[in-house]
Amino acid sequence: MVASLDQSTTTAGPIGTSPRRKEDHRLLTGRGRFVSDLQLPRMRHVAFVRSTYAHARIVSIDCNELDPIDHPVFTALSPGFEVGLFAQSALPGYVETEQPPLARGKTRFAGEAIAAVVADDRYQAEDAAEGVVVDYEPLPVTVRAWDEPQHPVHDAALDNVLLARTFSAGDVDAALAAAAVVVRREVVTNRHGGNPMEGRAGVALWEGSARDGHLTFWSGTQIPHLVRNLLAELLELPESNVRVIAPDVGGGFGTKAVLYPEDLALCLMARSLPGTPLKWVEDRAEHLAAATAARDHRYELEAGFDAEGHLVGIRGEAWCNVGAYSVYPWTAGIEALMAGGLLTGPYKVENYRCSVRGVATNTAPSGPYRGVARPATVYAMECLLDSGARALGMDSIDIRRVNLIGPDDVPYRLPTRLIDDTGHYAECLDACIERLGLDELRAEQARRRAEGGKPIGIGLACYNELTGLGRAASAGPRMPFRTGHEACTVRINPDGKVVVLSGVTSQGQGLETTLAQVVAEAVGVNYDDVEVRYGDTDQSLWGFGAFSSRQAVIAGGAANLAAVDVRESALRLAAELYEASPDDLRLENGSFYVAGSPEAVGTLADAARVAYLESNRLPPGFEPGLDATRFYDPVMGAFAAGVQVAAIELDPSTGEITILRWVCVEDAGRVVHPQIVDGQIAGSLAQGIGGAQYEHLVYDDEGNLRTGTLLDYLMPTSAEIPEFEIGHIERPADNPLGVRGVGEGGTLGPAAVLASAVADAVGIDIDQLPLTPERLWLALEDQR
Amino acid sequence: MTTDRVTTDRVTTETKVELSINGRRHVVGVEPRHTLGDVLREQLGLTGTHLGCEHGVCGACTVLVDGEPTRSCLVFAVQMDQTEITTIEGLAAADGTLHPVQEAFSACHGLQCGFCTPGFVLTAVHLLATNPAPDRATIRRELSGNLCRCTGYVGIISAVERAAVERAAVERAAVERAVTNAAAVAASAADEPSSPRH
Ligand code: FES
Ligand code: FES
After folding, report:
1. Predicted local distance difference test score (pLDDT) of residue B196
2. Which pLDDT score, from 0 to 100, does residue B6 have?
3. Cα A289 to averaged position of ligand 1 atoms, centre (Å)
4. Would you state the pLDDT for residue B191?
5. A495 to each of A110, A330, A566, A568, how far by Cα in Å?
6. What separation in Å is there between the alpha carbon of B51 and the centre of ligand 1?
7. Quick one: B180 and B150 in the same domain?
8. B47, B68, B90 - which closes a domain
9. pLDDT score for B172
10. Does some domain include residue B6?
11. Is the domain of B100 the same as that of B86?
12. Given Cys at both, which of A102, A326, A436, A583 links A332, Cβ 3.0 to 4.6 Å?
């Protein structure tokens, strides 16, 4: 059980406590406001006509059956639809390709939107979509990134490789030649995706003329400012004429950190139908077929160890399936670059060479999903360590210990030049093992081996989560923007209450609560007197949004800076009003105190009233108002250390795995809201377990998705997910709040942990995911 | 050639259904194909009922129909004539005081994005009405028809466990109060002069 999950308090809510979440009341009473809840006057509804072929020329699109007034139909040939999404990167070896709002000329994956139809409600829109007849001329299909390409997905890349890069350090060939042992593993990971419970949805409203109108776009996006930026460019509008609003959002996990062609199409349609709000709410089948997925990778790796188990070199190749399009704005490199850049994880190794490729195929585009590539790389890396331990006759825990980056090694420069600033992995590992009660489990394992009984296995994974990437750390993909910073405005209203306008977004992570805690503490007011607003580009100055576990570090950092500025202004004003020295004054719970006196001399509300309404009482040189806007950029990133250890039991007669125990210890730095942090870890662990054991987007050779509903695409329920034992070592990071990101770490371990537990239990190497009962049973049959 | 065009004036047969929702009577005209979920959300503005899959797997759309958990994406509104429906909007008191199950979800961090939450809360309300003291394993089993992508379920299970424990405590206190009151009444009756009244 997670201790802190039970300990919600309703106290003041300073950093380190778990006040009641500000989001909870509305969400629990059905008064959240999600995009799909929006109803506007004159609103009409949109359905997309989607490709039934994975790769085909579009010969014709016939919509003669539909009345053009009742049911306007849009295709790539409609006026204004010449524009497209170009994800850009300056990396050599990157091939830029276009993603059109609606398929143009040919369709590149089954499920791609080809046309869009408007109707008075969603039922009628779906009816009308059936009135659109598309004539196809099928083309050869390529489904796997490592297969011989059949027919180029994009003419710009005849070999389908949209990005290729080799990471290299030291002399890996010499190192492996001199190694005591060299092990080789080839592993394949399963495509799955974020699959948030709320799918994608959008409402677009164009007001005014086509040339000089105003566009409002309600969207579940994780990145509203980036979306505004691009929409303004593509629609040739001043950026101030575009407003993007992300209200309550039902989960994102990276899936919504993408600008989708459907989003663009909806806005283009709105421009053609000014004054009519257009609403699109996808269904789950559309989501599985056309939202971005991830983790469809293959790795061929070799690792050399010396006789004591030290890693001397890693060499290999990786293929990442990009799907049909280079995801906007992150590019086809998103997974491949992360895979090659962080493969070595928290282990010390100097000699390294890994060639990675992002390869286009006729499947739905891949994109960011919680953990980006690392659930796969951690699995691949831990497989190498398990193989190395076996080859050397070493204990699987010991081999990790001798290779982990330690506190004395930091700052440690990874072979890919990223700087690891934590080094607390062994501490996490020790805490996990102590919590697990390793000796007892080993004894039980031995007993069962001797006396019979279902085999028990103990598996582990150590990982580093790169969080809160500043401008230097986010430079890798060479995109035309750097996601290192975030803006925040902290404003004291005339009544003394505080409003925070943040550029980040929240899809369930509780940012309204966390930022309120940060600001309440920094200003010196009560948590209840702080209101946080985000997700509206007309309210906050600028923000990149929610991804890469950056919100607590970067948005928290900006909120803290702005709050400190505001407190200082308030103290200066109060010093004048109450004739005290600013150094003797402090602001606490919304009141001013002079050193040495328990009685408040005045309140923030009094000072704020003066600041806004009584300029006659303002001291000379004071501008009216009490607010501050600050940017924060940590420049580097904060690595978060994490280790997971689990005990499993196998049923050899069915191949079924029962998880007996699951322990996770992470260094989240200073914890702002323990309950939320543990909730992030528990949620990401469950997603990791789902991806490792159940979830699989399976394409047949014709490129048809065979797991296109939740009856086939299995998401884990409360019956499959075990109790988690979550622990922390809190080593403050080098940023003003001392925090590290925690959003993703949990997803990084499970595949590796389960594979390593199976290897420990029955000596079988799992080289392909998901780890289904069938796969395990077949492997056990082979062994018998 | 408008004759071969499909227009919105399809012949639609609207049926009137009478629903009692959260204690209020509604008469709504619905098409036979309209699901209960869509009618609640689109026609009645009760957008607290969420649609996560629209094919009966995720449980987000769960409402109580005559007390039974029902997937509102899988039933048609016309089937619901003369039923009593409870949606998430109907649980809290008018002044905003949360229902004990809602309260426990908040206290135990049983929700993150809140999208699955209405379905979980209503399913849990039904569970506790039928099994007042479930253990964690039972709660896990009983709630396994609902999907949550955010929480990893831990907080949800804790919330239901806590709601059960608190309910038991409230009931125990009520019983104790009743016993004490009865004793007090008995004692004061014993103190009364024995002369008959009237
Ligand atoms: S929306 Fe009804 S079960 Fe998913
Ligand atoms: S809280 Fe987000 S799906 Fe459950």
Report:
1. 41
2. 43
3. 18
4. 62
5. 56, 43, 15, 18
6. 5
7. yes
8. B90
9. 87
10. no
11. no
12. A326
- Residue A260 to residues A100, A102, A295, A522, B48, Cα–Cα distance (Å): 10, 10, 19, 38, 26
**How far is ligand 1, taken at its centre, from the CA of residue B54, in Å?**
5
Decide if B5 is inside a domain: no
Task: Tell me what pLDDT residue A262 has.
Answer: 98
Confidence of residue A243 (pLDDT cuts 50, 70, 90): very high
State whether B151 and B138 are in the same domain.
Answer: yes
Average of per-residue pLDDT across A527-555? 91
**Which ligand has the shortest distance to the CA of B120?**
2
Could you tell me the CATH number of the domain that includes residue B53? 3.10.20.30
Cα distance from B3 to chain A (closest Cα, Å)? 9
Amino acid at A227: V
CA distances from B192 to A711, B125, B181, B195 (A): 71, 46, 16, 8
For the segment A229-240, the average pLDDT, to the nearest whole number, is 96
Domain count across chain B: 2
Q: Which of A52-56, A316-320, A421-425 bottoms out in mean pLDDT, i.e. has the lowest?
A: A421-425
pLDDT digits (tens, 9 = 90+) for A400-444: 999 999 999 999 999 999 888 889 999 999 999 999 999 999 999
pLDDT category at A2 given cuts 50, 70, 90 is: very low
Sign of the torsion angle spanned by Cα atoms A320, A326, A327, A331: positive
Domain span at B169: 92-190
Ligand 2 proximity of A722 Cβ (cutoff 6 Å): no
Give the number of A-B residue pairs with CB atoms closer than 8 Å: 225
The answer to whether the CB of B147 is under 6 A from ligand 1 is no
Residue A464: beta bridge partners? Answer: A641
User: Is residue B103 one of the residues assigned to a domain?
Assistant: yes
Substitution candidate for ligand 2 out of A197, A287, A680 with most atoms within 8 A of CB: A197
- Beta-carbon contacts of residue B89 (< 8 Å; ≥ 6 apart): A29, A30, A31, B22, B46, B48
Give the end of a domain, one of B39, B72, B90: B90
**Ligand 2 in reach of B112 Cβ (< 6 A):** yes
For residue A719, the chain B residues in CB contact (below 8 A) are: 140-141, 144
Residues B84 and B98 in one domain: no
Rounded to a whole number of angstroms, the distance from the CA of B183 to the nearest CA of chain A is: 37
A148-192 confidence digits (pLDDT tens): 999 999 999 999 999 999 999 999 999 999 999 999 999 999 999
Q: Is the shortest distance between the CB of B60 and ligand 1 below 6 Å?
A: yes
Do residues B85 and B96 share a domain?
A: no
Q: Are residues B83 and B97 in the same domain?
A: no
**C-alpha radius of gyration, chain A, whole number:** 27
Q: Kindly give the distance from the C-alpha atom of residue A253 to the centroid of ligand 1, in angstroms, as a whole number.
A: 20
Pairing state between β A56-62 and A133-138:
antiparallel
Buried b or exposed e, range A604-629, using 16+ CB within 10 angstroms: bbbbbbbbbeeeeebeeebeeebbbb
B87 contact A CB<8A: yes
Residue B50 shares a structural domain with residue B105? no
Residue B26 located in a structural domain: yes
CATH of the domain at B161: 1.10.150.120
- What mean pLDDT is reported for chain B? 90
Nearest ligand (C-alpha, residue A194): 2
Residue B35: both structure tokens together:
């699901």
Does A117 score more than 80 pLDDT?
A: yes
- Compute the CA torsion angle A769, A773, A778, A781 (nearest 10 deg): 140
All domains of chain A, ordered by start, with CATH? 7-32+485-632 (3.30.365.10), 39-139+200-249+256-290 (3.90.1170.50), 374-472+637-783 (3.30.365.10)
Both B181 and B156 in one domain: the answer is yes
Q: Tell me how crowded residue A569 is: count the other CB atoms within 10 A of its CB.
A: 19
C-beta of B168 in contact with ligand 2 (< 6 A)? no
Q: What is the pLDDT of residue B10?
A: 55
> How confident is the model over A564-577, as a mean pLDDT?
96
From the centroid of its chain, how far is CA A73? 34
